[in-house]
Automatic annotation (TrEMBL):
One of its GO terms (molecular function) is phosphatidylcholine-retinol O-acyltransferase activity. Its main location: cytoplasm. Transfers the acyl group from the sn-1 position of phosphatidylcholine to all-trans retinol, producing all-trans retinyl esters. Retinyl esters are storage forms of vitamin A. LRAT plays a critical role in vision. It provides the all-trans retinyl ester substrates for the isomerohydrolase which processes the esters into 11-cis-retinol in the retinal pigment epithelium; due to a membrane-associated alcohol dehydrogenase, 11 cis-retinol is oxidized and converted into 11-cis-retinaldehyde which is the chromophore for rhodopsin and the cone photopigments. Pfam families: LRAT (PF04970). It comes from Cepphus grylle. This is Lecithin retinol acyltransferase. Residues 53-180 form the LRAT domain. Keywords: Acyltransferase, Cytoplasm, Endoplasmic reticulum, Endosome, Lipid metabolism, Membrane, Sensory transduction, Signal, Transferase, Transmembrane, Transmembrane helix, Vision. It is found in: Cytoplasm, Perinuclear region; Endoplasmic reticulum membrane; Late endosome; Rough endoplasmic reticulum. One of its GO terms (biological process) is retinol metabolic process. PROSITE patterns: LRAT. Its EC number is 2.3.1.135. It is a single-pass membrane protein.
Length: 233
């Protein structure tokens, strides 16, 4: 018997959305707050060089940052707090899931500098793993670090057009691209084109309303017509 594709498609959609939203898995009873990061000194930073591109693979996504030296990493994080306050001490606190998700919804983020421990959050770190995809486009290490430092501060956020991967590829390779976004879009197109996955298609449309921040006054037909035309292209 053929399995019902709708639950499978919905599950895949949820995984891909979590991939881009960067929600961190939380232990039971955590109350939605971010658990403490790894202790200082957990990572050996002696092998890192200023300007290195750091990747932290997680279960459903990869988080990216630029190493600035002296145990500091610049990385882009969705965060609602910069929209309400300029207090650097509050903003610099480790971003909770609530702040992160609200930042995604409101398209608000900050390019911040954290310790390697806070950035990696207990995950393994890959160094310059993306260089193989860009070959001769790799900029000098100092140029990459300076680009990252100049961009530190509040910034707009977009799941598709300005996420943490766009930030690091601009800094190290001179062009903001996101392979995770490309994979996400291809997956969505595949779901939409499967005529059996009608429910999954509706879920994708509703998710686009919430995550991409469309105006509340926009009617459903106005949203879905261009959305499906784009997916079919």
């Amino acid at each position: 018997t053929m399995k019902n594709p709708v639950p499978q498609a919905a599950s895949l959609l949820l995984e891909k959305l979590l991939l881009l939203v960067h929600v961190r898995p939380l232990p039971a009873g955590s109350g939605g707050e971010t658990p403490p990061p790894a202790a200082p000194g957990y990572y050996d930073t002696s092998c890192f060089k200023r300007g290195d591109l750091l990747e932290v693979p997680r279960t459903l996504f990869i988080h990216f940052g630029i190493y600035l030296g002296e145990n500091r990493v610049a990385h882009l994080m969705p965060d609602i707090l910069p929209a309400f306050t300029g207090d650097r001490r509050q903003i610099q606190q480790v971003v909770t899931n609530k702040r992160l998700i609200l930042g995604v919804i409101t398209k608000t983020a900050s390019i911040r500098v954290d310790t390697v421990e806070d950035f990696a959050y207990g995950g393994s770190i890959l160094v310059n793993h993306m260089d193989r995809l860009f070959e001769d486009q790799v900029l000098g290490s100092e140029e990459a670090a300076r680009r990252a430092e100049k961009l530190v501060g509040a910034t707009a956020y977009s799941l598709l057009w300005n996420n943490c991967e766009h930030f690091v590829t601009y800094c190290r390779y001179g062009a903001p691209v996101s392979f995770q976004t490309d994979k996400f879009c291809e997956t969505v197109k595949m779901i939409i084109r499967d005529q059996r996955s009608v429910l999954a298609s509706v879920l994708v449309g509703l998710a686009s309303i919430v995550c991409l921040g469309l105006a509340p006054s926009t009617t459903l037909p106005t949203i879905f017509i261009p959305f499906f035309l784009w997916m079919a292209g």
